[in-house]
Amino acid sequence: MPRPEVLDRIKEAEQEADDIVAEAEEDREQRIQEARAEAEEIREQAHEEADAAAQERLEDAREEIEAEREQLIEEGEAARENLEEAAQAETDEVVEYVIDLFEEAVHAST
Length: 110
What we know:
- The protein has one helix at 3-109.
- By secondary structure, the protein is an all-alpha fold.
- The protein has one domain.
- The longest helix is centred in the middle third of the chain and has 107 residues, at 3-109.
- The chain is rod-shaped, with a radius of gyration of 46 Å.
- The termini are far apart.
């Protein structure tokens, strides 16, 4: 094979190698971009799922707090009613006692 043909074949082989390397570089860059896009999508999805889970826990906590609040209000109202009844009973007894003392004082002075 004459020397110019050998040089042409070497140049062609080098050009093919350069083309293969360039194509591989483009493919690598494309895969990196796709991987980054997929990673960002996964991050966004995880963030959305975390937000949804946090919102659900918050709602559950609010419902639990509201239930406890209602129970405390009911217990407080029951305790208040018991205290009012006890106070009313004591008031009646005190009024009777004061009236008795007054009557005794009136009878004692007459």
